[in-house]
Specification:
Length: 92
């Protein structure tokens, strides 16, 4: 069971790492995407900077067993925020 959990953590961490790295590599595109998504103008720049860093932090925290709890909580928080944002957009 330990190997299965490790593989799952690595796959999820890799997903967050790729997403965070891609957003960080193109901050202007990330900010434009946030604006197009409906984020208020005052929050576009901070969110565009925070989101990739949060995704990278979650990816890093998911690997060691000593920090997997924090990585899991961070990933749940990010995924819930994404779900909320998508739901709000779909409702409008």
């Amino acid at each position: 069971m330990g190997i299965v959990a490790l593989v799952i953590r690595i796959v999820i961490a890799a997903t967050f790492f790729v997403a965070g790295f891609a957003k960080l590599a193109d901050l202007q595109g990330t900010r434009k995407g946030a604006k197009d998504f409906g984020v208020p103008g005052w929050a576009v720049k901070p969110l565009g900077s925070f989101l990739p860093l949060a995704e990278l932090a979650v990816a890093i925290l998911l690997i060691p067993t000593s920090t997997v709890l924090w990585g899991s909580l961070g990933s749940i928080a990010l995924l819930l925020a994404f779900i909320a944002g998508i739901s709000i957009n779909l409702a409008n």
